[in-house]
Amino acid sequence: MAERYVPLGGRSRLEFSVLHAYAIRGGPLNQGRNMIGSVGYFYQLRERDGPEVIAFHWHPGRPNQPPFPHVHVQSRVGSVEISHRFHIPTGRVPIEAVVRFLITELDVQPRRDDWARVLDDGEQQFNARRSW
Question: What does 74-130 look like in DSSP terms, one character per residue?
């Protein structure tokens, strides 16, 4: 599904895909208010029309898949080879952390000057409201 990726600005020819699943929950514990909660994510980075570079996944409940958040990378150091099929455990990864990684580590061009403040604010809200 090539159409799910969008090209990123910067020196490299990278494309990014985000799929974030959520559920709306209500009930007496929420004092009659609806709450929105994350139930999974796929944040994937690849070379433009090429191989995947890194993928952050959390998709509990999928058959034959781990229930914990994880990352996929391809690496070889000495005699150790890590396949992109491996599920390397992580904690939950907020989208703000991934976007910050793209900008600060991979030189992706931000689209606004106040990107750091916007990402910090969003990540603080995520950390304050997450349920685990």
Answer: -EEETTEEE-TTS-EE-----HHHHHHHHHHHH-BPPSSTTHHHHHHHHHHHHHHH-
> Could you tell me if 72 and 54 are in contact, meaning their C-beta atoms sit under 8 angstroms apart?
yes
pTM for this entry: 0.87
**In whole angstroms, what is the distance from residue 15 CA to residue 52 CA?**
9
Domain membership flag for residue 104 = no
Measured between alpha carbons, how far is residue 18 from residues 11, 44, 80, 92, 113 in Å?
21, 7, 30, 15, 22
* pLDDT tens per residue, range 2-50: 578 999 998 889 999 999 999 988 766 666 677 788 899 999 999 998 9
Q: How many domains does the chain have?
A: 1
Per the structure, the complete domain to which residue 18 belongs is given by 2-95
- Cα–Cα distance measured from residue 55 to residue 17, given in angstroms and rounded to the nearest whole number: 9
Calpha distance 77→106 (Å, rounded): 21
Spatial distance between the Cα atoms of 77 and 40, rounded to a whole number of angstroms:
31
- Is residue 14 assigned to a domain? yes
The reply to whether 130 falls in a domain is no
**Is residue 53 in a domain?**
yes
